[in-house]
Each structure stands twice: as C-alpha cells, then as structure tokens.
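Quick one, T. Sequence first:
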Amino acid sequence: METKNIMIVGVGGQGSLLASKLLGKMLLEEGYDVKVSEVHGMSQRGGSVVTYVRYGDKVYSPIIDKGEADFIVSFELLEAARWMEYLKPGGQIVTSTQQIDPMPVVTGAAAYPEDLVAKMKASGAKVDALDCLALAKEAGSSKAVNLVLMGRLSHYFGMADEVWQKAIETSVPAKFLELNKKAFELGKNA
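Structure tokens:
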C-alpha cells in the first residue's frame, strides 16, 4: 500500500497528542507500518501545533512535506487554512469551525480572516467543517473535540467501528471512556 499522510493541526492544549496516539494505535492494530511524529510547535496552550501520522506497507520517516498530506485534521479554522499548502491535490480537510484568536488578533495588530471555509473550498480543497466544540460539549466536555474530530475522520477510512472503539479504549483513561466514546459517535454521525 502506498504511504498515506495525515496532519493533525491546532492550538496547544486542544488534545492533538491524544488524537495522534489514538490514530497511530488504530492503524498499527490494522497491520500498517506507522510513524507518528512528536508535537511540533508550542505545546503550551495558545501556540500553533502540528503532528504527523504516516502509515502504509513501509514508512521510513514521520515527516510530511508540502503537497503530500492526504488529510489535514484541524482543531481550529485558521490552522486548517495555515497548513493548506501541505494538502495534496484531492486531499481532504476535516476541521472544527472553532476560532481561537492568535496573538496578532488578540493585540489588535490583525483581524481574524473571514469566510475561511469558503476560501479553502475556492482554492480547490475538499473541506468537511463541523462545529466540533458544540458536539464535544454535548458529549459532556469541551475537551473532547479531539474525539469528535476522530469520529468525523472515521468517515474517510474503510475500517470497522470496532477497530476505532478498541483504539479509544486503549488510549483514553477509564474514567473518561464513556464521554469520549460519545464524542466519537457524535462526530461520526454529525
């Protein structure tokens, strides 16, 4: 199988590390060679972060170059737009519509860009945008956006639901398991 590339992007503190670990475990269980990078960027709350997940028959490096990402999974709308040049032609963006003001916007030096979903689509990207924060809150915690996004991403994989559920069970602490399973289902079925 040709190597597939997934970028998980967002803002520090949103749960991208758990999302990448869950995805990596699920793909390993399915028999793929998997490379998951560490979080690159400011892992503290507020900074831009990116994690790479690559899988296939044989993967030699965890790094994804511009124009190579099959998927960009984004926790925040501006981050989806910021990393778009990494998306390959025909690639898919799965993004939360949440907007977190970056420092230039906070200080008044810039304005948050408008109509980002329309702009990304106009540039030729396939965009699946969803209010993941609202669904995470419905599941019981605003911190469950990562599982809502994984549920949404599951639409684009031909893997059985049981495979995803097992990955969730081995990635999430028991006391948060039901909440995270609900978040996954809400994302999947939205």
